[in-house]
Amino acid sequence: MNSARPILIIKKKSGHGGHHGGAWKVAYADFVTAMMALFIVLWLLNTSKQIQEAIGGYFKDPTGTSKKVGSNMVGSGENFTLTKDNMPKLKQLLQQAIRQMSDFEKLKSHIEMTVTAEGLRIELTESASGTFFDSGRPELNRDGSQLLVTLAQELGKLPNKLSIEGHTDATPYAASANYGNWELSTDRANAARRLMQGNGIRPDQVMQVRGFADQRLRKPTEPLDPANRRISLIVQYLVKNNDDDDEAKPAPGGAEHKAGEPHGEEHSDPPQAAAPKKD
Fold first, then answer.
1. Distance of CA 225 to CAs 176, 183, 197, 261, 279, Å?
2. Residue spans of alpha helices (H) in the chain
3. Is residue 217 part of a domain?
4. Which tens digits make up the pLDDT trace of 145-194?
5. What is the pTM of this model?
6. Is 268 within a domain?
7. What is the CATH classification number for the domain harbouring 210?
8. 44-73: per-residue pLDDT in tens?
9. In terms of Cα–Cα distance, which of 159, 154, 106 is closest to 132?
């Protein structure tokens, strides 16, 4: 009796892609991503410094809150009361905002912030050729306008009152002129007020506009030095009333000068020939 042979079934797999599957797709995706990154870097290298700083700032602070006054302090900027303890923090925040300006490197040596008994004093000093104002003119130039707009946008978030001062050096106008250092210092302070109130400062936030002519020189031993010509912004402290309500009043110790009273220290080449300096 013959036994039947077993039937063998042999299956063959066709193709040879099973061992690597779609790995090539991953490699191709990595290549495309790398090329995209390269093109972005090449594009950034050819953009302006302002755009580079803006993009860099986004990656440092994607939420966009680091520049907001009060974001790292108690409460928001609108509810924050500045005292001697936290005024340096405001100074730091303002400095960070100013550093974002496209012309910061050119202006940084002419901007000084000091915490004083009256509040935070921001000094914008002039150079011999004029940094924020053209020579002898009360109108702000482009750099001066850009800086004051930046400051206004930050200071407008605060409840604090502001004082704005104008100063000249001791260079006199011609004796026959109807315009002098008193007028120039006051006009420049008032020009700063108008610009800032149009770009963030509230109408009731400026408490005083003062012009001092050459009576408060920054360098008393060098009365003709251009650094004596300056605009000063004072962010005044707030002090809670005794009844501990929400109203606040300016801290004492501010200068007792009425709005518009001359306060000066800034002067450029006058429209008329300057009188000769006395010995």
1. 24, 19, 30, 23, 17
2. 23-45, 49-60, 87-99, 104-107, 142-155, 181-197
3. yes
4. 988 998 998 899 888 899 999 999 998 888 777 889 999 999 999 999 99
5. 0.57
6. no
7. 3.30.1330.60
8. 888 776 677 777 777 766 665 444 443 333
9. 106
